[in-house]
């Protein structure tokens, strides 16, 4: 089998099964595990998949730029946002992450809600201007344009001074084995710091992010309390999270 044919076959298997386990696949195809791993490395360099220990996962489409991401899961994201908004209690101090699903969450907040929202996203702050009873605290720093959020030392210092009730985390990728990952190292550090300073962390996971992986780890799944996903999500995808004791809210 030619190299190009092997790669096309690997991508087809990844699309159909959602993951590749190098050892298992080498046995079923009668190819050496080294050959499979080499092909996976080359495909990862092309951005066609994401290498993980023992195999590969689909590359997350959430690594596209902000404008492109607004066109993905346009029905699921508002539904996820409404379900997440219902989790906020009056008087709470909540941190809302940046990203397209988080913007939908800000839009879904009831106009009469009394709460404090901390955010490092200008997009979130602007959405809350017309909420008269929501106090908005902005975190500043270097603007990371991919997600339109503040990053860097200044942001981390400010985040460390605030204890929130809930952190609504936007993610690039979520997988039971790879954990919570994103495409930028600094953004991963900031998300990790926000989560550490929150009493609970809720992950907003639109369908294209499940079962995918990105280069930089944010935190182990054990550190999150809940995920909010589309009501149309296959239960088989959710079962591993439930087994870990993570609450699942359907939107």
TrEMBL record:
Claim: Transferase is one of the keywords in the record: no
Protein name as it appears in the record: DeoR family transcriptional regulator
InterPro entries recorded: Carb_Metab_HTH_regulators, DeoR-like_C, DeoR_HTH, NagB/RpiA_transferase-like, Tscrpt_reg_HTH_DeoR_CS, WH-like_DNA-bd_sf, WH_DNA-bd_sf
Superkingdom, taxonomy of origin: Bacteria
GO MF annotation terms: DNA binding; DNA-binding transcription factor activity
UniProt keyword annotations, A-Z: DNA-binding, Repressor, Transcription, Transcription regulation
Keyword check for Repressor: yes
Pfam family for this entry, one: DeoRC
Transmembrane segments annotated in the record for this chain: none
Residue span(s) of domain HTH deoR-type: 3-58
